[in-house]
Amino acid sequence: LLSVKEINSQRETMDLEPVLGEDNGNDNFRPLKTIPVFSFHLLVSALISIVGVGMAVVFPENQRCEAYFLMLYLRVIFWVITLLFDHVIKYHHDKLRMNGFHDFHRATGVHKSVPLYLVSLWNTAIMAIQTLMQHYYGDNFGMHCIQSFFSPIVYVSTFSAVEFGILTVIHGTYIARVMRFNRARPLPDAMRGSFEGGSSVGLTQRNADVAELLEKQADLISFLQDHNLRLNQRLMQMNSEVRTITLPPS
């Protein structure tokens, strides 16, 4: 009987540790798989910039209008890619938040939102400039396309190059953070004590943003509810195993 109790105690410890996050290795950690998505988006931006500069330099003057409109088509395609990119990144970060990593989710909020805003802003500016040129030049728009330095292909390529530079900084910073996060394999925020001060719902923090505090509370409640559900399931499984071991066969 003593050996059965010892076995049960050991099994309870082994079963509870992964749920409570007390194991040092954090075997339940799921890495954030967004680095390939960010790398692909940055690669597409680089290719568009290279194509724009190449067409501005290589294309003859009588084909500069064709190069300009081709760049506009590429800008539209890039916006669609950025929109899909934004949805994929939000999907992965929502899963990350549901797994309890709320601080990292908030810390990378700018990196997730800026690309779509930036590409949309750049395309809006290009569309506004195109409208002004078409209105101002009228039927003479084709003649201005063949100008060497002031042709539309030059300014579109310049816009794309500046955009690529900004995205390089944003994406590079994000990729470095995610690599450190995946390599560290941290425990969820509630397990690491980041909510210890927030267990009082954060009302004692001075100069704190109320909306941010409410969001942290909602995240913590959602995580603890999911955590309690997993604990209940594990306890029910352990109880059934204990009954199987301790009850004598009828």
From TrEMBL:
Intracellular or extracellular location(s): Membrane
InterPro entries registered for this protein in UniProt: TMEM192
Signal sequence residues: none
Transmembrane intervals: 37-58, 70-89, 114-133, 153-176
One GO cellular component term noted in the UniProt record for this chain: lysosomal membrane
Keywords: Membrane, Transmembrane, Transmembrane helix
Lipid bilayer topology: Multi-pass membrane protein
Record-stated family: Belongs to the TMEM192 family.
Name recorded for this polypeptide: Transmembrane protein 192
Organism the protein comes from: Nyssomyia neivai
